[in-house]
Write a structure and sequence with these properties.
single chain; mainly alpha; about 0% strand; elongated
């Protein structure tokens, strides 16, 4: 995968993980502020965007596919991070592209 896409993907999920409980009343002992909700929303949107970009990035080699697989295995391998149908479709199109020598 291109370096920018890889950096985005590898930083988005850990950032989301670091703020994912910032709005939980039980953890905070109070209601979350608007700023805390916004922090969570921004991190969640960034993580979703990174996932979408990893899935739809046009792989042109087996190394690109392997990089996608490593990312998905590391950050999206549990029941809380299930891929949506559009993610799977994008991954399959990327796999077809590599199988056809980079042309779709």
């Amino acid at each position: 995968m291109k370096m920018a896409c890889r950096r985005l993907a590898e930083s988005a999920r850990p950032h989301w993980d670091s703020v994912c409980s910032c709005c939980e009343e039980v953890a905070l002992g109070r209601k979350a502020t608007a700023a805390e909700h916004q922090t969570w929303d921004d991190a969640s949107n960034g993580e979703y965007s990174a996932l979408w970009n990893v899935c739809r990035f046009p792989a042109s080699s087996h190394a690109d596919l392997a990089a996608k697989g490593r990312y998905l295995k590391r950050f999206h391998n549990d029941s809380l991070s299930q891929l949506l149908e559009e993610h799977v479709d994008a991954l399959l199109l990327s796999m077809v592209r590599v199988g056809k020598g980079g042309a779709v």
